[in-house]
């Protein structure tokens, strides 16, 4: 069995860091019924390909089965003469889980920022049994952002096509997401597992399907096949996925602080997403590891911070306990491993009062927060954040009032906004705060830039000046 993963991300050899497998070596792993190998047939700065080869011993596969376990090829010569050593199946998925364990979790000690970044990927599986026809592969991979080509492998002119396909996937995704898609969907396409499916298989499915399976249009088919058509297990898994869908729907009903109708151009890339990406990019540039999200609301930015391992301590702070409860559910803190859970804290606090817990952090984020504060109380927020907490950097985003001409508004962008500043007003406030509390500041825009009105969101990046 063979599978290759290629990228043209520059430098492409960073793929080795993401997979935690050096491109200059052949890596060998013992499997219950054979060996798995990882090698790099090409490794240049422009393009890098990692190949996973699984060499199955049919005799070892049969001998290693637990007594009483059923398998599709369980009688006579079928135990030894079958397609298992050649066609991608659950055995390839098992090898994936063992060989690329860190990559599946999205962990990369050497390239943490890249592990959280979508990169161009190309996956090829030369031989894959596809029960249901070649058209099933695009149905499964298409909703996940892949362009999927499943080309039937012909037998000969008289017999026509075989039940096998050559699968090629192209897309721009996080490598961890790509590997989890393959871990689940390769055995689903094959529709046969080489081992006895126990209840713990539900946890494997839910874990690998986190963030995509609950909303997949073919989730019922995927669940049944992954759990080998065991009705009780499939029912339990679908119930958990339904709970996940309800949770996500509840979060979707929680409005972002800036809930206006965006212009058509912005709808392709929501402004809320652009804001979070800009904040994350600034935090990475600053080298921040311990980060405060002040006025975190329902936790959209917290979720992005948690996915990036470079942020070793993350605190979400908000005055509203309801927002913190929603953020806790969004982050699924009760289900995280202890080490992950220790990275994240949620604190109820008012940002206009000094709080000793907020001192000593590398950076603090006030994303779409200050415009919700009554102007007479702004000086108290400034003192509490810039003066008392005094992080190494403070990132502040707020609407640009000049850009509101692009929206059909009777007033401000949100009913709870106490003010919205022009670029000149924001620059004046930023300069005053920076000078008062010993910070340097630079300003930028977020979103599409209009020559006259500027960008829809403005950001100030304050960095603590070091005394001579």
From TrEMBL:
Occurrences of domain Hen1 N-terminal (ranges): 1-242
Substrates-to-products reaction catalysed: small RNA 3'-end nucleotide + S-adenosyl-L-methionine = small RNA 3'-end 2'-O-methylnucleotide + S-adenosyl-L-homocysteine + H(+)
GO biological process terms on file: regulatory ncRNA-mediated gene silencing; RNA methylation
InterPro entries: 3'-RNA_MeTfrase_Hen1_bac, Hen1, Hen1_N, Hen1_N_sf, SAM-dependent_MTases_sf
Keywords associated with the record: Magnesium, Metal-binding, Methyltransferase, RNA-binding, RNA-mediated gene silencing, S-adenosyl-L-methionine, Transferase
Cofactor(s) listed: Mg(2+)
EC number(s) reported in the record: 2.1.1.386
Protein name in UniProt: Small RNA 2'-O-methyltransferase
Species name: Catenuloplanes indicus
């Amino acid at each position: 069995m063979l599978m290759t993963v290629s990228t043209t991300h520059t430098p492409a050899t960073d793929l080795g860091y993401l997979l935690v497998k050096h491109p200059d070596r052949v890596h060998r792993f013992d499997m219950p019924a054979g060996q798995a190998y990882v090698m790099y047939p090409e490794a240049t700065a422009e393009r890098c390909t990692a190949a996973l080869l699984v060499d199955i011993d049919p005799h070892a596969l049969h001998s290693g089965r637990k007594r009483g376990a059923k398998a599709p090829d369980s009688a006579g010569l079928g135990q030894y003469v079958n397609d298992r050593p050649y066609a991608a199946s659950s055995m390839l998925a098992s090898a994936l889980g063992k060989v690329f364990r860190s990559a599946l979790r999205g962990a990369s000690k050497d390239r943490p920022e890249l592990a959280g970044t979508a990169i161009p990927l190309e996956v090829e599986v030369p031989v894959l049994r596809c029960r249901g026809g070649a058209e099933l592969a695009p149905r499964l991979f298409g909703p996940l952002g892949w362009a999927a080509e499943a080309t039937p492998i012909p037998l000969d002119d008289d017999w026509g096509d075989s039940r096998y396909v050559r699968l090629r996937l192209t897309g721009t995704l996080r490598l961890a997401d790509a590997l989890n898609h393959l871990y689940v969907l390769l055995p689903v396409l094959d529709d046969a597992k080489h081992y006895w499916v126990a209840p713990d298989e539900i946890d494997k499915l839910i874990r690998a399907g986190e963030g995509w399976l609950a909303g997949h249009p073919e989730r019922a088919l995927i669940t049944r096949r992954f759990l080998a058509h065991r009705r009780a297990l499939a029912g339990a898994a679908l119930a958990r996925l339904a709970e996940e869908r309800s949770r996500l729907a509840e979060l979707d009903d929680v409005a972002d602080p800036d809930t206006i109708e965006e212009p058509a151009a912005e709808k392709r890339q929501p402004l809320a997403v652009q804001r979070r990406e800009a904040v994350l990019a600034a935090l990475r540039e600053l080298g921040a590891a311990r980060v405060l999200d002040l006025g975190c609301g329902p936790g959209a930015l917290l979720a992005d911070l948690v996915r990036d391992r470079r942020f070793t301590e993350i605190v979400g702070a908000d005055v509203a306990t309801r927002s913190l409860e929603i953020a806790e559910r969004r982050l699924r803190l009760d289900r995280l491993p202890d080490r992950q859970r220790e990275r994240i804290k949620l604190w109820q606090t008012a940002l206009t009062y000094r709080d000793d817990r907020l001192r000593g952090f590398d950076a603090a984020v006030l994303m779409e927060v200050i415009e919700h504060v009554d102007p007479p109380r702004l000086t108290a927020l400034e003192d509490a954040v810039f003066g008392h907490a005094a992080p190494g950097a403070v990132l502040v985003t707020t609407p640009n009032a000049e850009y509101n001409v692009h929206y059909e508004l009777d007033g401000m962008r949100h009913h709870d906004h106490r003010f919205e500043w022009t670029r000149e007003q924001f620059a004046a406030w930023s300069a005053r705060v920076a000078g008062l509390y010993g910070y340097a500041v630079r300003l930028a825009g977020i979103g599409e830039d209009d020559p006259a009105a500027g960008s829809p969101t403005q950001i100030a990046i304050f960095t603590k000046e070091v005394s001579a």
